[in-house]
Amino acid sequence: xxxxxxxxxxxxxxxxxxxxxxxxxxxxxxxxxxxxxxxxxxxxxxxxxxxxxxxxxxxxxxxxxxxxxxxxxxxxxxxxxxxxxxxxxxxxxxxxxxxxxxxxxxxxxxxxxxxxxxxxxxxxxxxxxxxxxxxxxxxxxxxxxxxxxxxxxxxxxxxxxxxxxxxxxxxxxxxxxxxxxxxxxxxxxxxxxxxxxxxxxxxxxxxxxxxxxxxxxxxxxxxxxxxxxxxxxxxxxxxxxxxxxxxxxxxxxxxxxxxxxxxxxxxxxxxxxxxxxxxxxxxxxxxxxxxxxxxxxxxxxxxxxxxxxxxxxxxxxxxxxxxxxxxxxxxxxxxxxxxxxxxxxxxxxxxxxxxxxxxxxxxxxxxxxxxxxxxxxxxxxxxxxxxxxxxxxxxxxxxxxxxxxxxxxxxxxxxxxxxxxxxxxxxxxxxxxxxxxxxxxxxxxxxxxxxxxxxxxxxxxxxxxxxxxxxxxxxxxxxxxxxxxxxxxxxxxxxxxxxxxxxxxxxxxxxxxxxxxxxxxxxxxxxxxxxxxxxxxxxxxxxxxxxxxxxxxxxxxxxxxxxxxxxxxxxxxxxxxxxxxxxxxxxxxxxxxxxxx
Length: 597
Known about the structure:
With 597 residues, the chain is of the alpha/beta class. It is 43% helix and 15% strand. It has a seven-stranded parallel sheet with strand order 3-4-2-5-6-1-7, with helices on both faces. Strand 3 (152-155), helix 6 (172-180) and strand 4 form a beta-alpha-beta unit. Helix 3 runs parallel beside helix 4. It is globular. The protein starts with a helix and ends in an 11-residue tail after the last strand.
């Protein structure tokens, strides 16, 4: 069938082009008659690695400040993962509450599974770079001391930009070589890198695909998979598990009802999508770990921004999180709360108006303040939701998709240190949502709320929610251009139309740190763009919609050049430092609609 047939060809293509890359590289590294072949990456050694991880988990549990209830739930999840790791390779779901230790438990599953079934590597697929940051930090803390830092490899746009020591001590080229073809025991990558490679036609993207054979592939926060790509994605992963001895694990607290789409998936591959759940229902993890009471809005009620700002500025909310749907809402609310507090020393903001380096620094300060029980109020867009490890006693969430509301509940009383956390869901005066699937999901959540009592700790709620969402969104009929290209086995068109992030944005270097900005802007003006420069610039860049070239944001953009005569079309330098706010990021005059949400 079409997706299976195309993946089989890509796997052959992968083995061929990777061999070609390696032989070419060896030729240029040759000395005399001796070809300079690279040494292979380290091997997994899953049984030994599992021992190390279990010892690390035991040490963390002994030092944990979480409640006894939360620690017991984490231990039960770990034991369920260890037991499930002995099952035959195939398709799995791992459904567990936020804060229950999924990051390390699913690694324990993967290592057990690899030890029992002689699998070669673990690939961890994560939707957002900020989650990758904390996942890699956790895995390296557990394993690097025993296996060296090269045992866990990152492959994404910010890899190698944070000043880590080179894993092999042989320079960035060696690190890049082993990352680009995933020749490593544990690879941590983005959903974009993993999934777009499965549908690519380019040698550089496809060359690592053959490494997925006999691997355990862990997908974290899988509810973020775009609806219009669900069917072909499940078909490709199904083929990997059926034909190439891989296992795929979908981990999240809000598990999408993908098995409901099995019949549609079988149109594109033979084996369909019918995963087995790792966590036994009788463990009842969600009910046992209730840490948050959700206050739902009364029908027809609205909460003005001024009233919300009053509540957030009150002494009862000295540590509070508030998540809204749009960036202009976040900036507006931040300004109102700042006015009431008389300053912003204890007030923070997170959105993709801020470059990755800025967001990382803010999250580090927030975690320190929460740990030290210092005042800390955070106004954020959805970028704080999935997988970000913060723990507030009080949270507010503008009405939105049900899984998004549940994710904010997971950032509230996460470690069970308070008798009960409180999440206040509200409908703002100006009820507005990002266009497309997000708006549709928020509407489905309203339909379900009108027919039943909502309980964010009930997994059955999400099964119903996603079934209704799929009935309305009809993922089997979405993205007809892509599905038609797959049916015709048109590799070029498939690669063009399978996009997790539409190719409608540009990268803009922003003046978050003036000295770094000056250095990077000066270097690219003198020497032109290069791989090294791009890697250094990414943590200090944001994405901006291409939009209307006559829009006001374009007045402040200087194009980056390849050389003296040629400009690139996806990198720019922002020219006005005063437009970058140290709290809220880039705010060009009259240009909020141009920025990525």
